[in-house]
Design a protein that fits this description.
By secondary structure, this protein is mostly helical. Helix content is 71%, strand content 0%. Helix 4 packs antiparallel against helix 5 and helix 7 runs parallel beside helix 9. The N terminus is likely disordered.
Length: 254
């Protein structure tokens, strides 16, 4: 049976910065007309009516052509539609109008990564760190890029920084474990993955990777324990959950 060996999570695409200045609230220096367009655009997004959302954001920008958040939201919609060229333009406009707009850097980097421009995505994140060295998601995504280009020690540094910034998040611990495993340091990989579980006992991917490690080491008892946890916390529709259940049953029958 081929066991699943996880890698760090893919780059995160952010949509959270809108909370800084909700698009459905009146204020933030916008006119009532602009806020009405933004409110409509948000509703269209929620209904996946992306073309109507684009039109509403464009009308808002006609009234307020220097609104970084609106460009960011427009970029996100284009990004969702895989229109990378227009998404790139909108994200760059957001940054032009607000150089400290970290989430726009993160999404622009993710776009470049998805389009195969990995190093370009790396440079965007490095630019973001010059603005905010404590940007959690920047360190997290930069760690992923460095993992992919096999600069493991540098990836570890960024994941460790992410942990210092958000100690209660399981994700950097999990990603750190995957990097240590790639480096062949099983002991540190296990330690990091177990810390991910401490932060979130339902984090099924950590159970999955621990099960793989113990399975490959021939520790059937530990492997069975983690495969069982994977089946408990995993999505029942996920093929990996089915595989974990099958592997668990094989081990307990021995």
């Amino acid at each position: 049976m081929k066991l699943h060996r996880a890698i760090p999570y893919n780059l995160l695409l952010l949509i959270t910065l809108v909370l800084l200045c909700s698009l459905i609230e009146i204020g933030c220096g916008r006119t009532n007309d602009v806020n009405r367009y933004l409110e409509n655009a948000g509703r269209y997004e929620q209904k996946s009516q992306y073309q109507k959302a684009i039109q509403a954001y464009q009308k808002a920008l006609e009234k307020n052509p220097h609104d970084a958040v609106t460009y960011y939201r427009l970029g996100y919609v284009y990004h969702s539609l895989s229109d990378f060229s227009k998404a790139e333009g909108a994200y760059l406009k957001a940054i032009d109008n607000d150089r400290s707009f970290i989430d726009a850097y993160v999404n622009l980097s993710t776009l470049y990564h998805q389009d195969g421009w990995v190093r370009k995505g790396q440079r965007i994140l490095e630019d973001a760190l010059q603005i905010d060295p404590r940007a959690y998601y920047v360190h997290l995504n930069l760690g992923q890029i460095l993992y992919e280009v096999e600069e493991f020690d540098e990836a570890i540094e960024h994941y460790e920084t992410a942990i210092k910034l958000q100690q209660n998040s399981p994700l950097p611990y999990y990603n750190l474990g995957a990097v240590y495993l790639k480096k062949g340091d099983t002991e540190k990989a296990i330690e990091s993955l177990e810390k991910a579980i401490v932060q979130d006992p339902s984090f099924h991917d950590a159970y999955n990777l621990l099960a793989v490690i113990y399975d490959e080491e021939g520790d059937s008892e530990a492997a069975a324990r983690y495969w069982k946890k994977r089946t408990i916390y995993g999505d029942k529709r996920d093929p990996m959950t089915h595989m974990a259940r099958k592997r668990y049953r094989m081990l307990v029958k021995r």
